[in-house]
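[agent] plan:
  1. take the single chain provided in the ticket
  2. run structure prediction with default settings
  3. attach structure tokens to the ticket
  4. add a short note for the reviewer (M.T.)
[agent] executing step 1
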Amino acid sequence: MTTISLHEPTPLWQSGALSGVLGSPVLLKMEALQPVGSFKIRGMGAACRRAREEGAARLVSSSGGNAGYAVAYAGRRLGMPTTVVVPRTASARAQALIRGEGAEVIEHGESWDDSHAYASQLAQRLGGAYIHPFDDPAVWAGHAGMIREIAEAGVTPGMVVVSVGGGGLLCGVLEGMHNAGWLDVPVLAAETRGADSFAASVAAGRLVTLERISSIATTLGARTVAPNALAWTRRHHIIPWTVTDREAVDACLRFADDHRVLVEPACGAALAPIYGQAEPLMGRDPVLVIVCGGAGVTRELLAHWERQTR
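[agent] step 2 finished; step 3 output follows
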């Protein structure tokens, strides 16, 4: 069976603008430049390839946008029919991108958790493989590849900054860090308030399910993080960090000016601590930021989010 490459190695940039703000070198792993606009294709692609190798004839997933888009893209490239269940909060743009890859889109539920429950049952009825957007070892292993690329470039950071939604990216980054021997490199795990299920779980010492997602960063909208994300806090130094929606959007706008790249507020959550000179980052050399990207962003949406958070 021919191996199809679904993701691309991404650039590692040193940001003059962000380094100037922080007063120490800031490196950007530019996952926003993946074919689907986000890091998601690494993990989703790995899980979809595994499903095909195990004999699945159909893919089913659930997503507020980026993961579903990545699964739809992978399904088209692999020649597999794909269904993606999205919550009602999923943007029209995200749904259009998924449909543009030839996937069926079903809208169900108020949040990703509702969509996930429905999609899991649907996969059983259809006899398809369910591709979980963040709680799957194959997904984590796929995301870990971005750290391998950085390590192969000879870089060892002083701190890693990463956005947390369901925790799939966090788990993958940590897996990659341990594979690379970065055992003592701390991680700043950034979320927006109203989508901060990881921070709430760390504070409680157990998994916490948010009553609802009230942040505009809907692609961080998992009311409960993957259990493995919380488990990592017992094996690695992870600092939960929350920012406001306004700080995340402001970071997106400043990043667009600084680097001519549009990213979603979910990604802005990881950029905001840099622009805000967060205390845990001070003196770290270099700080590595996973610029996770996001396909569901346009100039018009950024302007709307800016008005909405003022």
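[agent] step 4 note for reviewer: The first strand starts at residue 12 and ends at 14.
[agent] ticket updated
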